[in-house]
Amino acid sequence: MTNNQKKQRLSRMEAKAQTRQDLLTAAGIEFAQQGFHGTSIDRIAEQAGYTKGAVYTHFSSKEALYLDLLHAHLAKTEHTFESLMASGKPVAFVIDELSKNYFSELEKNRDWAILTVEFFIHAMRHQDIKLQLVNKIRTAQKNIETALVNRLNHSNEALPMTIEQTALALLSFNNGIDLLSLIDPQQALPNVYQSVLKLLLTKLD
Fold it and tell me: N or C: which end of the chain has fewer CB within 10 A?
């Protein structure tokens, strides 16, 4: 393969990656504004400036678009958790930073929280979609478990629950706080959030 051919191939790959990202960005905007069921592939294509065919070239369905967005959202959350766990900072600092980051993201992305509730209900009624969603969540759980194990390697203490139970509790608690914050944001949720994290993670010092 000549240098020119390599450049052309790379350019095609770059263009394909850019198109995919444009479609995800457009889907995120449409989902936030219209909700999952209120959004169509046509609207996403129009928002992105592409044809409907271009959407289907990269994504098999509207659900596939959401699941890719979910993957990016979870990856960002996991990165924050892993970085703080690996920082070597006292667990009180880690908990404080986790709480600040969680509620900052929740405030900025309330539409995402609403969309997630809507999609979870949708997935409950469609077995194939539910299985894909479960795989995403379980991958996130495994990544949290790994971060906890790495932190525990530098601690002489044990957590009050198993690593698996702790990771699942953290994910479940976040989902519960998401729901309650959407319905009753006047509650002192940051205080509760920090208190529960202390119960789960204090032994990591």
Answer: N
